[in-house]
Amino acid sequence: MRYDVVVIGGGIVGLATALNLKKANPQLRLVLLEKEDKLAAHQTGHNSGVIHSGLYYKPGSLKAKNCIEGYNMLIDFCNENDVKYELCGKIVVATNEQQLPLLDTLFERGVQNGLEGLEMLNRDQLRAIEPHVAGIAGIKVPQTGIINYTKVSEKYAENIQKLDGEIKLGEKVSSIADHDGFSTVITNKGSYETTLVVNCAGLYSDKVAQFTEKDKINLRIIPFRGEYYEIKPEKQYLVKHLIYPVPDPNFPFLGVHFTRMVDGGIEAGPNAVLAFRREGYKKLSFDFSEFKETLAWPGFRKVAGKYWKTGLGEYYRSFSKAAFTKALQALIPELEKDDLIPGGSGVRAQACDYDGGLLDDFAIIENKQSINVCNAPSPAATSSLAIGKSVAEMVLKRLK
């Protein structure tokens, strides 16, 4: 059987793309291939579970457009499919005078992106919402929520299969061969002929893209591990909503924060350290060949040369619970080291270009054989249905 589309990657973006394709054209012959024995095994399954509102993103960027549209699509999907979520809201906190201009910029971005109910908060208003937080000003963002993205992904898969889409687990793609008018996707279990390949392979998206682009991909995925602690149950009263710091413009993905989880509990973190393997969830996880590839990429060496002090600080927090606690105390001074217990971790697939730029926006690369989603950082989970819709439209246009 020849397929119209083979989707590579069973994370939330791959599943959302397959779902949008089957909803747009139920007759489409589609198969989704996932190398693990379960869906949402990596970035999606290690996600902190935040439904992002679109506050942070530059107006007009793909992130902003997809986050706002994706937010609404996600809420509608969850309501229609009985997926549990909670719009608990969050506050963004400025802890010093230097952060106030950045806080104003965030507020303006939120307004331009169409967020509703945003409020600027003074110190007293901040403490009325979060009595234990230390801050001189803040922003209340009522649209932010919490959810379990693994359960969302499983529901996407259910809907794909109801529309006769195929999902195959344990199928690791090893190569893609180009023929006249079609491609053959070769896995550890077999091969699949298809008119078009859609690459949503996350941490290995650049590798899969190279199967069809050879040496033409001008970016590499650099893995950054984020580590969390959880707050002991007896101290969870310290956090009532989600509490975020004002982000550093140079590193918007850095900055420890507090996240309520939809199934209970509160996470604190993460830090962000270079992982020594792409799926390296533990401090000592190491893959020589993958680490060597990271070091060999000129763009990474430029980033490391420029920001090595920041990187060392993140590593220090990784191995020092006291340092991690101190960073959290900037937001909640009452928190103590003994209030924290080790939590989970996740690995972020951060695209880095040849010149040392860390891509902040979504990146989709097309060629004759494939459409490659090569950078889909946060808020990709929130935006998944919108990203999937955009990719599906590209696919259907190509198939016509």
In words, what does this structure look like?
With 400 residues, the chain is α+β, with helices and mostly antiparallel strands. Helix 1 packs parallel to helix 5 and helix 2 packs across helix 10. Helix 1 links the parallel strand 1 (2-8) and strand 2 (30-34). The protein has 3 domains: 1-84 and 145-217 and 362-400, 3-Layer(bba) Sandwich (FAD/NAD(P)-binding domain), CATH 3.50.50; 90-142, no CATH class; 219-239 and 253-353, D-Amino Acid Oxidase, Chain A, domain 2 (2-Layer Sandwich), CATH 3.30.9. Helix content is 34%, strand content 27%. The model has no long low-confidence stretch (mean pLDDT 95).
Shape: globular
Query: From the helix content, strand content and strand pairing, which structural class follows?
Result: alpha+beta
Summarize the main sheet: 8 strands, mixed
CATH architecture of the largest domain: 3-Layer(bba) Sandwich
| Low-pLDDT residue intervals, each spanning 5 or more residues | none
Helix content: 25-40%
Radius of gyration: 21 Å
Give the CATH topology of the largest domain.
Answer: FAD/NAD(P)-binding domain
Please provide the count of β strands.
Answer: 20
Order of helices and strands: EHEEHEEHEHEEHEEEEHEEEEEHHHEEEH
In short:
The protein has helices spanning 12-24, 62-81, 100-112, 123-129, 149-162, 205-213, 288-296, 298-319, 321-329, 380-399; strands spanning 2-8, 30-34, 50-51, 85-86, 90-94, 119-122, 137-141, 145-147, 166-169, 173-178, 183-187, 191-199, 219-231, 242-245, 257-260, 266-269, 273-274, 340-353, 363-366, 370-375. By secondary structure, it is of the alpha+beta class. Helix 2 packs across helix 10 (380-399) and helix 8 packs across helix 9.
